[in-house]
């Protein structure tokens, strides 16, 4: 916060900058590929510093169920009002929660059904739980409310922090409530409080400290989770620009007007043959929720073209990103961090016996701060056995495909692991085409003779060893995605804390 705003009421103009500072995770301490002097400034790219999170894990929070919730699928968790839960992570509109009493089961529960226990937030009329910024603005600007109306919601970017959204002079302002290392709540680091209730109480009685008076809690009904949120009228989406042509048709950037958010919309190509695939893709997407998988947000499946609405990833595909000037200057630490996220998303699919079958940089999407998510489940299938046999007519991306899958259509989680090795090669070589200059036939012959892609220049040896493990001729000898995730995570953590050099 600027000094001027600590001592007087902040002007609304600078409030955005000082009360709502841009949050940045600490930079990765530099591990220059040459092992040269390490200073955070060294990982500047042409667009400025790239921030990536510290590998430290967050403490687990205690939650309670606010209402009864009946699980509708194996992934969900039935809870009774008052059940004590620990929340492992936030996944879109859900939280992955674990019961702390009885059978200790875990599963997904709508985020609006739970509240942090120690503060008993649910008893406060101003607590709106897991609603986003756009929704908070719509609620507060509705006619039932007036200046001073406010609510508190879970932060969109940091699930253990909160945001006060308050209406003043017909506008809505947002104030981030941060947590100190001992768990205290504060808006300004000069004043912290033991509970969220005490913090709100203070600012209700000392409006000058915040700059915006906090009067009555927002008057709207607190919404419960919508059971069928997927289908939406297509008028809710405003198309802006075509991002490119995907496997199934065009992908557009759009605004979801009622939710006030940018989204990506995939449109179905009209040919009948592809429609079947498209429907399967949607079915797969609907049941999958993980921060490292592209999240399905909505569908317009009535009429044509069918829209599949997903979260928008600001930097597009990893393939395009690696080729961009920003991608070309990424350090090994950044690439390992990104690779670890992909392995995490794939481990989630592995647990559900879902085979992606087209894991490659073109199917990974990138957002700010190097966030990576696995996309395009166009070829994914939920398999009963550990091996899925594809029809011979399927077009196979040979360079990324394990020999047993390319030659005998034996696709499995382990053939995805092979592809992950090739994806790591794409990343560490900053976007090089695998087996450049070779035909698909030559690639298969080379692999059969025991040849493997060479280590990319500047690739740390331990990362190249992981690639070679992924390319073990015997599928069962390849590592699991869980193992890959933990290996990459620990290499990243060691780089972060400067104990090894790459
Ligand atoms: O490399 P790109 O910019 O990233 O071009 C391709 C194109 O659409 C065709 O697949 C981009 N794309 C696909 N899905 C998304 C998304 N969810 N967010 C942003 N860009 C996307 C992809």
From TrEMBL:
<dbReference type="Pfam" id="PF07714">
    <property type="entry name" value="PK_Tyr_Ser-Thr"/>
</dbReference>
<dbReference type="InterPro" id="IPR020635">
    <property type="entry name" value="Tyr_kinase_cat_dom"/>
</dbReference>
<feature type="domain" description="Protein kinase">
    <location>
        <begin position="237"/>
        <end position="488"/>
    </location>
</feature>
<keyword id="KW-0067">ATP-binding</keyword>
<protein>
    <recommendedName>
        <fullName>Tyrosine-protein kinase</fullName>
        <ecNumber>2.7.10.2</ecNumber>
    </recommendedName>
</protein>
<dbReference type="GO" id="GO:0005524">
    <property type="term" value="F:ATP binding"/>
</dbReference>
<keyword id="KW-0547">Nucleotide-binding</keyword>
<feature type="domain" description="SH2">
    <location>
        <begin position="126"/>
        <end position="218"/>
    </location>
</feature>
<comment type="similarity">
    <text>Belongs to the protein kinase superfamily. Tyr protein kinase family.</text>
</comment>
<dbReference type="InterPro" id="IPR036860">
    <property type="entry name" value="SH2_dom_sf"/>
</dbReference>
<keyword id="KW-0829">Tyrosine-protein kinase</keyword>
<keyword id="KW-0418">Kinase</keyword>
<keyword id="KW-0519">Myristate</keyword>
<dbReference type="GO" id="GO:0005737">
    <property type="term" value="C:cytoplasm"/>
</dbReference>
<dbReference type="InterPro" id="IPR001452">
    <property type="entry name" value="SH3_domain"/>
</dbReference>
<keyword id="KW-0728">SH3 domain</keyword>
<keyword id="KW-0727">SH2 domain</keyword>
<keyword id="KW-0449">Lipoprotein</keyword>
<dbReference type="GO" id="GO:0004715">
    <property type="term" value="F:non-membrane spanning protein tyrosine kinase activity"/>
</dbReference>
<dbReference type="InterPro" id="IPR017441">
    <property type="entry name" value="Protein_kinase_ATP_BS"/>
</dbReference>
<dbReference type="Pfam" id="PF14604">
    <property type="entry name" value="SH3_9"/>
</dbReference>
<dbReference type="InterPro" id="IPR011009">
    <property type="entry name" value="Kinase-like_dom_sf"/>
</dbReference>
<dbReference type="InterPro" id="IPR000980">
    <property type="entry name" value="SH2"/>
</dbReference>
<dbReference type="InterPro" id="IPR050198">
    <property type="entry name" value="Non-receptor_tyrosine_kinases"/>
</dbReference>
<dbReference type="InterPro" id="IPR008266">
    <property type="entry name" value="Tyr_kinase_AS"/>
</dbReference>
<keyword id="KW-0963">Cytoplasm</keyword>
<feature type="binding site">
    <location>
        <position position="266"/>
    </location>
    <ligand>
        <name>ATP</name>
    </ligand>
</feature>
<keyword id="KW-0808">Transferase</keyword>
<dbReference type="Pfam" id="PF00017">
    <property type="entry name" value="SH2"/>
</dbReference>
<dbReference type="InterPro" id="IPR036028">
    <property type="entry name" value="SH3-like_dom_sf"/>
</dbReference>
<dbReference type="InterPro" id="IPR001245">
    <property type="entry name" value="Ser-Thr/Tyr_kinase_cat_dom"/>
</dbReference>
<dbReference type="InterPro" id="IPR000719">
    <property type="entry name" value="Prot_kinase_dom"/>
</dbReference>
<feature type="domain" description="SH3">
    <location>
        <begin position="58"/>
        <end position="119"/>
    </location>
</feature>
<keyword id="KW-0597">Phosphoprotein</keyword>
């Amino acid at each position: 916060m600027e000094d001027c705003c600590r001592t007087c009421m902040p002007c609304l103009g600078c409030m955005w900058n000082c009360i709502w500072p841009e949050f940045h995770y600490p930079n990765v301490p530099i591990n220059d590929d040459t092992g040269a002097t390490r200073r955070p400034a060294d990982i500047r790219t042409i667009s400025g510093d790239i921030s990536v999170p510290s590998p430290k894990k967050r403490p687990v929070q205690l939650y309670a169920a606010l209402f009864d919730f009946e699980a509708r699928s194996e992934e969900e968790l039935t809870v009774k009002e008052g059940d004590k839960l620990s929340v492992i992570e936030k996944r879109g509109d859900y939280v992955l929660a674990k019961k702390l009493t009885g059978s200790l089961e875990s599963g997904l529960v709508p985020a609006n059904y739970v509240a942090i226990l120690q503060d008993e937030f649910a008893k406060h009329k101003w607590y709106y739980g897991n609603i986003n910024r756009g929704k908070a603005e719509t609620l507060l600007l509705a006619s039932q409310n007036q200046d001073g109306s406010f609510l508190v919601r879970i932060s969109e970017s940091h699930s253990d922090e909160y945001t006060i959204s308050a209406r003043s002079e017909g506008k809505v302002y947002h104030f981030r409530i941060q947590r100190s290392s001992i768990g205290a709540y504060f808006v300004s680091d000069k004043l912290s409080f033991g509970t969220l209730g005490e913090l709100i109480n203070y600012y209700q009685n000392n409006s000058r400290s915040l700059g915006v008076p906090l009067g009555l809690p927002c008057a709207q009904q607190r919404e419960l989770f919508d059971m069928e949120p997927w289908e939406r009228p297509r008028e809710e989406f405003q198309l802006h620009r075509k991002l490119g042509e995907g496997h199934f048709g065009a992908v557009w950037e759009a605004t979801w007007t009622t939710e006030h958010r940018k989204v990506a919309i995939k449109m179905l190509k009209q040919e009948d043959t592809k429609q079947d695939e498209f429907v399967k893709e949607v079915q797969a997407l609907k049941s999958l929720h993980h921060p490292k998988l592209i999240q399905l947000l909505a569908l317009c499946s009535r009429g044509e073209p069918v829209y599949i609405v997903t979260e928008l990833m600001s930097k597009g595909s990893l393939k395009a990103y690696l080729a961009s000037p920003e991608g070309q200057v990424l350090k090994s630490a950044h690439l390992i961090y990104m690779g670890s996220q992909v392995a995490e998303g794939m481990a989630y699919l592995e647990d559900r016996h879902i085979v992606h079958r087209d894991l490659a940089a073109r199917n990974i999407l990138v957002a700010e701060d190097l966030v990576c998510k696995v996309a395009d489940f166009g070829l994914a299938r939920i398999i009963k056995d550990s091996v899925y046999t594809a029809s011979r007519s399927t077009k196979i991306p040979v360079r990324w495909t394990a020999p047993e899958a390319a030659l005998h259509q034996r696709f499995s989680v382990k053939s995805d692991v092979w592809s992950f090795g090739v994806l790591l090669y794409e990343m560490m070589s900053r976007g090089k085409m695998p087996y450049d200059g070779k035909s698909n036939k030559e690639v298969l012959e080379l692999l059969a003779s025991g040849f493997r892609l060479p280590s990319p220049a500047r690739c740390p040896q331990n990362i190249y060893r992981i690639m070679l493990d992924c390319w073990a001729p015997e599928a069962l000898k390849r590592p699991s995605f869980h193992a890959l995730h933990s290996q990459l995570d620990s290499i990243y953590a060691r780089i972060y804390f400067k104990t090894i050099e790459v």
